[in-house]
Design goal:
heterodimer, A: 741 residues, alpha+beta, 7-stranded mixed sheet, 25 helices, 28 strands, 35% helix, B: 222 residues, alpha/beta, globular
Chain lengths: 741, 222
């Protein structure tokens, strides 16, 4: 079927494009006439939630985005942060949720492809990737199929492209049954004086199309991603794009080669809404008009209409504005890599976005308004209802050793080896810490000692119970995971996944979570430099858990001093740094309650941001002083699970002494915030450790010596000893058993 | 000792290989693009890993049919040493420089982990820096590394000491017959292996068990 361009614009057609009647009226007011069919498509692409952030913009503006190291904050393809020595790290996280539910392999693969392109569009060679994946309940009929497809898709694309996956998250919850989350992160390295931007400069310059040919795949994808799912989702399969990592790899090499020639003035990758979005952004940012001649666009299908070409989301494509005198050199680079290269238009001085097709002008729109005057909403929201805190005596009892084995071998806390062994984690030869620890660490090429740490974090249970505290906690945990390797947290990217913003209670979650993220980022000097918002994550009216994923980047002056989570040697003192004197007290929204008692009640734990910062700075200082042999932050499952993970990772047991008179369940499974476990190469009776304790005391940080490493069992107070082998077996078994069942 | 690294579009461990050769050999290898007119005069030709042409046909099949591989075949016939790692191994097999086939892993999944390798023969220019029977660590990262050959070919490989590396201690990641991880041609100047010794050559990699392979080839002390 070929779509015609002279279709009558009916209210139904407008609605089918996801445009509300008042939004359509805004279009009529703006252009003073009825739009053509192609123009309607262009508006729907530019003004949908995915591209315009119309529901979230008001709140995103409240986030801190500046800092002494920030070179580029939100608004470009990716954020850019100075890491010294003339080098910068370029990174972003982005969702591909809807496509991945409809077609898991290609949805996840093109999510990875899209985020890699965002990074190398800025002139950076990708050096690390992560993926935060959230699936429905393990017992749900579609979950295994989706896990298989998404993991294979992430690996299929990233492995072929050649970027190491250094970290990520995998979680299961029934609230994602009909709407999984695939959040892809990528980071690249560039020289600070060789960053490329999307702002076009200069009139009459060639607009050049590069990369793969345009097909009909993904037409309407961004609009699809801005709607809820109903029972008709299977019909939306054709809106999912197909990835080609081989072309992307060539596009990477060709773009970097081309950038080195000095030919590139502006560059923008074609992501959501492809040609439309990239051309409008380049023009609007540079206060220039753009004229496109679609007859020059390389196509792989016959009889494509202007509408289809403008809305195609075919992958592995770029748009650039080039220096006219270097066009020939640029063409030679692309011919070497056997990629399409076509001059498809030019910059103009009339601030119009004009599209020609078969000699006819099919669109003529004001370019600034198309980009900047997208509708913006102050959507009504209601204050979330925070569940009452658990009563102090509400501590459901279970044998500590049994509980530990169940949690370590359960779906939440078990090893993700089944997943990450399908990803190439060591390509490029710079992976210092691979997945399985607190953060991935790579060394920085071109420098003797520098390293970068990466982590992705959010606790959707906490965000559901208390969006503000959950937002704070996501940032704090990310910052904590970076700190636990010895890194200085630099900046973060946020990927905000929520339900339908037209429902005030969902909007309330977003408003409060963003508030929490902002407060935590300010308190920790951890600015948000890029991000993405994914709304309408719901199926048949039931929203996902609010999931503001935070991807963080930290800097290590010397990667050789980065610390891992595994116990390093026997007979070393274990210190619990931070948190309350009673070690653990908070059971609300804990994994212990959810997974062992099927209870999702109580308030989320609160993060004391001043204590968080003080504790983290103290831990980092200890690591850098060389006395720390292992470090792990406490998160899901509290002290017990963290100790088990350190024992499993190091293959060494430990003996920990209880606090008398305080419930061991709270001690071992409470999820109080701002805590780290450290092992030290110090004599626990010596002067050095005494000095450490004096310093902690002066700072008001708890730092009790809670036990000692050694032996082949983990002994938690009076609980029966559990062998490290049994813990490891439980930890490693859940995922492969589940996937092969 | 001069080395050249051949690059086909879609290969992605070329940079890892160039880094290993440079760090161990002390000089950068020549980098040969698949469309270059010729390979410079070198003692060692390396085809690194990756996904040449996306592996959209059988792995290595498209690169194996490129004119560049005719040049590699000609050099090999003159005794120049040729090393193919991962996709490079697949290309050498598809080009007929090594026998057998590399099938999809029995798990049907890509696998990236560290395995153990037994050095199964040392009477060649590649592995003589190891002791025969020595077990070394080495990373793997592949989707199609399941080596297979017919009984006659296997007998020849085993009988002539042409199995260079075998997966050891139960770490066979792909179902390869006889645990084969790397094989030599009859003249023992061509080695193909699935594991990535270039990713285990220095402290940052967590070990340097792969170093001796390159040190031997480049006449350097390990």
């Amino acid at each position: 079927m070929t779509l015609r361009n002279d279709i009558e614009i009916t209210p139904q057609l407008v609605a089918d494009h996801g445009l509300k009647p008042d939004e359509y009226q805004k279009i009529l007011d703006l252009i003073g006439r009825v739009p053509s069919y192609t123009e309607l498509g262009i508006f729907s692409a530019m003004w949908n939630e995915h591209c315009s952030y119309k529901s979230s913009k008001k709140w995103l503006r409240t986030l801190p985005t500046q800092g002494p190291r920030v070179i580029q904050g939100p608004g470009e393809n990716a954020g850019v942060v100075d890491i010294g020595d003339g080098q910068a790290v370029v990174f972003k996280m982005e969702s591909h949720n809807h496509p991945s539910f409809i077609e898991p392999y290609q949805g996840a693969a093109t999510g990875v492809g899209g985020i890699l392109r965002d990074v190398f569009t800025m002139g950076a060679r990708p050096v690390a990737a992560m993926n935060a994946l959230r699936f429905g309940a393990p017992e749900h009929e579609k979950t295994r199929h989706l896990v298989h497809g998404v993991v294979a898709g992430v690996g299929g694309y990233g492995n072929s492209f050649g970027v190491p996956t250094v970290g990520g998250e995998v979680e299961f919850d029934a609230r994602y049954n009909g709407n999984i989350l695939v959040n892809a992160f990528a980071a690249g390295l560039a020289d600070t004086d060789k960053i490329f931007y999307s702002k076009a400069e200069g009139v009459g310059l060639p607009v050049v199309y590069l990369g793969a040919k345009t097909g009909r795949d993904g037409v309407g994808g961004a609009t699809m991603a801005s709607a809820e799912f109903g029972d008709d989702i299977e019909e939306k399969r054709p809106t999912v794009q197909v990835g080609d990592p081989f072309t992307e790899k060539r596009l990477l090499e060709a773009c970097l080669e081309l950038m080195a020639t000095g030919a590139v003035i502006a560059i923008q990758d074609m992501g959501a809404a492809g040609l439309t979005c990239s051309a409008v952004e380049m023009g609007a940012k540079g206060d220039l008009g753009i004229e496109l001649d679609l007859d020059k666009v390389p196509v792989r299908e016959e009889r494509m209409t202007a509408y289809e070409m403008m809305l195609s989301e075919s992958q592995e494509r770029m748009l650039m504005v080039l220096h006219p005198d270097k066009e020939a050199a640029a063409r030679a680079v692309f011919e070497k890599w056997e990629l399409d290269f076509a001059t498809v238009g030019k910059t103009t001085d009339d601030l119009r976005f004009r599209v020609l097709w078969q000699g006819e002008e099919v669109a003529n729109l004001p370019i600034k308004e198309l980009g900047d005057e997208a509708p913006e909403y102050d959507r009504p929201w209601v204050e979330p209802k925070i569940p009452a805190a658990l009563a102090a005596n509400d501590v459901p009892q279970m044998d500590v050793a049994d509980a530990l084995l169940k949690l370590v071998g359960g779906h939440q806390c078990s090893s993700r080896r089944w997943v990450y062994e399908q990803y190439d984690t060591m390509i490029q030869g710079n992976s210092i810490q691979r997945p399985g620890g607190d953060a991935g660490v790579i060394r920085v090429l071109g420098h003797d000692s520098k390293g970068l740490a990466f982590t992705s974090d959010v606790n959707p249970r906490y965000c559901e119970a208390n969006p503000y505290e959950g937002g704070k906690q996501a940032v704090a945990e990310c910052w904590r995971n970076l700190t636990a390797t010895g890194a200085e947290p630099l900046a973060a990217t946020d990927n905000l996944n929520f339900g339908n913003p037209e429902r005030p209670e969902i909007m309330g979650q977003l408003v409060k979570a963003v508030g929490g993220i902002g407060d935590a980022c300010r308190a920790l000097d951890f600015p948000i430099v890029s991000g993405n918002v994914s709304l309408y994550n719901e199926t048949n009216g039931r929203g996902i858990l609010p999931t503001p994923t935070i991807g963080g980047v930290g800097l290590l002056p010397d990667w050789q001093k980065s610390i891992r989570i595994g116990f390093a040697a026997a007979n070393q003192p274990i210190l619990l740094i931070g948190g309350p004197a009673l070690r653990g007290t908070h059971l609300g929204q804990s994994i212990y309650l959810r997974d062992l008692f099927d209870r999702r009640d109580g308030d989320a734990p609160h993060v004391d941001l001043a204590a968080e910062r003080k504790t983290g700075d103290f831990v980092r200082k200890l690591i850098r002083s060389g006395v720390v042999t292992a470090c792990h932050d406490l998160s899901d499952g509290g002290l017990g699970v963290a100790l088990a993970e350190m024992a499993i990772s190091g293959g060494i047991g430990a003996t920990v002494v209880d606090i008398e008179g305080h419930d061991p369940i709270l001690q071992y499974f409470g999820e109080d915030q701002g805590r780290y476990l450290l092992t030290l190469n110090l004599d626990p009776q010596g002067d050095e450790i005494a000095a450490l304790w004096n310093e902690a005391k002066a700072l008001g940080i708890e730092a009790p010596w809670i036990g000692t490493t050694g032996g082949s069992d983990l002994v938690l107070g009076k609980a029966k000893p559990v062998s490290v082998a049994a813990l490891a077996s439980a930890h490693e078994s859940w995922f492969p058993n589940y996937m092969s069942a | 000792m001069k080395a050249a690294v051949i690059v086909f579009p879609g290969l992605n461990r070329d940079r890892d290989m160039i880094a290993a050769l440079t760090k161990i050999g002390g000089a950068e290898p020549a980098v040969v693009w698949h469309q270059d007119a010729d390979i410079p005069d070198v003692d060692l030709i390396v085809i690194p890993g990756g996904f040449s042409y996306g592996d959209y046909l059988r792995c290595g099949a498209i690169a194996a049919r490129s004119p560049m591989m005719d040049k590699v075949r000609e050099r090999a016939s003159k005794g120049v040493k040729v090393l193919g790692v991962c996709n490079g191994f697949q290309i050498l097999i598809e080009a007929g420089l090594l026998p057998g086939a590399l099938m999809r892993n029995t798990s049907l999944k890509f696998v990236c982990r560290e395995v153990k390798l037994e050095v199964a023969s040392t009477d060649n220019a590649f592995t003589s820096g190891y002791a025969k029977g020595q077990v070394i660590r080495c990373p793997v990262a592949h989707h199609d590394g399941n080596y297979f050959a017919d009984a006659e070919t296997l007998a020849a490989l085993e009988g002539d000491g042409r199995v260079a590396f075998r997966y050891a201690e139960g770490t066979n990641p792909n179902g390869s017959i006889n645990n084969i991880a790397g094989i030599l041609n009859a003249d023992k100047n061509v080695l193909g292996l699935m594991p990535h010794p270039e990713n285990l050559i220095e402290a940052a990699h967590g070990g340097d068990d792969g170093r001796a392979l390159f040190a031997t080839l480049l006449n350097k002390a390990a």
